[in-house]
Design a protein that fits this description.
The protein has 309 residues and is an alpha/beta fold. It is built from 14 helices and eight strands. Helix 7 links the parallel strand 3 and strand 4. Helix 1 runs antiparallel to helix 13 and helix 9 runs parallel beside helix 11. It starts with a helix and ends with a helix. Bound molecules: flavin-adenine dinucleotide. Flavin-adenine dinucleotide (FAD) binds next to strand 4, strand 5, strand 7 and helix 13. Keywords: FAD, Flavoprotein, Nucleotide-binding, Oxidoreductase, Proline metabolism.
């Protein structure tokens, strides 16, 4: 229920414009968002790098409504890639297809995505396609399928809470393009589409993770980014990696900026690849609402900023 409230708030545009003017909300959001500019994102990437942690840079934005906005988002990604290359930085990029125009048209979105992926390939880096709500799953995977065989520098996120994900993972393994960021899922989905109970989501996560770590999947080129802050699942992954002698090229860990920094540092110190998702930009409101929806205790954190500015 908690998540339902915040995911619905994340879509409320009137509230968004009002809330974004309240300084204390931004101060609370700043725990999860590196800042409003690319330079803020770069600063955060450098801080992480100093601790042996790699980055995924996300220019915040979603559900754009005009081709001009989708074009602007694409250009922003291209500019970011050029700026990063000039600085000798090669973080992965995270993109949301609705930021590149998926709501306007698939062809337009595909054109924009190809431009970003091609520039990223030239820069020697990877584009990770975020997974949005289930209204977009089919189209996101269809687009990934068209690009992935041609561009090995692409990955896609899969959400363990969706019933369909078991089949999607199998198909991607079979097709030899299972380069997957496995997350639990951050949107509000009805019970005929996604597991409503956390323990079932966690069990699904472990099943999919084990499948992607298996020797059979690896023989078909599978790669898994284990994107979770769930310590129990991370420990489970570490046990399987050791038992099955999974090579370091077949997996990495991923977490979000500002969440479980202790675990991020621990994994880096143990020599694992850990990559942190660093969002920046002025469109931080929906991202922040989803982070609030994941953890009720975060509301106290916002309240603290109201009381003690
Ligand atoms: C790198 C990365 C990329 C992601 N990409 C996507 C995507 O493309 N699509 C998508 O739907 N979702 C995405 N997510 C979000 C994901 O689906 C979950 O909503 C989110 O990670 C919380 O789930 P969890 O796996 O950490 O497990 P949980 O069981 O929810 O949390 C485990 C522990 O992590 C900590 N924690 C988790 N969330 C928070 C929070 N918001 N604030 C403070 N502490 C917290 C708490 O200590 C909690 O006990 C991504 C997550 C990561 C890490």
């Amino acid at each position: 229920m908690w998540r339902a409230v915040f995911v619905s708030l994340s879509r409320n545009r009137t509230l968004k414009h009002r809330v974004m003017r309240w300084g204390f909300v931004w101060r609370a959001a700043a725990r999860f968002v590196a800042g409003e500019t690319l330079e803020d994102g770069i600063r955060a990437l450098r801080e992480l790098e100093a601790q042996g942690i790699r980055g995924i840079l996300d220019h915040l934005g979603e559900n754009v409504e005009s081709p001009a906005d989708a074009e602007r988002a694409t250009e922003d990604y291209l500019l970011a890639l050029d700026r990063l290359a000039a600085l000798g930085l090669r973080p992965h990029l995270a993109v949301k297809l609705t930021h590149l125009g998926l709501d306007i048209g698939e062809a337009l979105c595909e054109r924009n995505l190809r431009r970003v992926v091609e520039r990223a390939a030239e820069a020697g880096t990877v584009v990770e396609i975020d997974m949005e709500s289930s209204a977009y799953t089919e189209r996101t995977l269809a687009l990934y399928r068209r690009l992935a065989p041609v561009y090995p520098n692409t990955r896609v996120a899969i959400q363990a809470y969706l019933y369909r994900s078991a089949q999607d993972v199998e198909r991607l393994i079979e097709e030899g393009i299972a380069r997957i960021r496995l997350c639990k899922g951050a949107y509000q989905e009805p019970p005929h589409i996604a597991y409503p109970r956390k323990r079932d989501v966690d069990a699904s996560y472990i099943r999919l993770m084990e499948r992607l770590l298996s020797a059979e999947a690896r023989a078909r080129g599978a790669f898994i980014a284990i994107a979770t802050h769930d310590e129990r699942i991370i420990r489970h992954a570490l046990r399987r990696i050791e038992e099955w002698t999974v090579p370091r090229e077949a997996f990495e860990f991923q977490m979000l900026y500002g969440i479980r920094r202790d675990l991020q540092v621990m994994l880096a110190r143990q020599g694992f690849v850990i990559r942190v998702y660093v969002p920046y930009g002025t469109e931080w409101y929906p991202y922040f609402m989803r982070r609030l929806g994941e953890r009720p205790a975060n509301l106290w954190f916002v309240a603290r900023h109201l009381i003690r500015p």
